[in-house]
Amino acid sequence: MADEIPPPPPAFGGAAPSEIIDPGEFAAVAADVSARAGIVLLNSPEAEHHRQRGAVAYAVAAVEEVLKFIPAGQDAVPASAFSSEAGRARYEKDPGKFRRDILEIELRLTRQILTDIDTVSPPPGDTGSRGSGSAPGVN
Questions:
Q1: Full-model pTM
Q2: For residues 56 and 110, is the Cβ–Cβ distance under 8 A?
């Protein structure tokens, strides 16, 4: 594992689930960042939507992290994966949100928002390459 090169931002880590942050915490990040970016997207002109791309990409990365906690052949994040008080509380409130099918729908929809941002609001001077805009905040 020491030889593993981490992926570029906004990804959080390699192929294995985090041993530091639990899936409930990643889910909270995804929900919070998505909600804040969504409010801005709904209340700003399309020409300014590119400003939220980094935040939405960060939300995608957080959902991808939650999915890493689902063991091969399983359909959901197991309760034992939740190691923090906040993560366990989130899981206990609605364990269905940690099913593979629900997480994959969330991931697909959030990725679609990125595609839509790229379609309607490329950044000024865009050369076709996509920077990550790794900051999780909303401008």
A1: 0.84
A2: yes
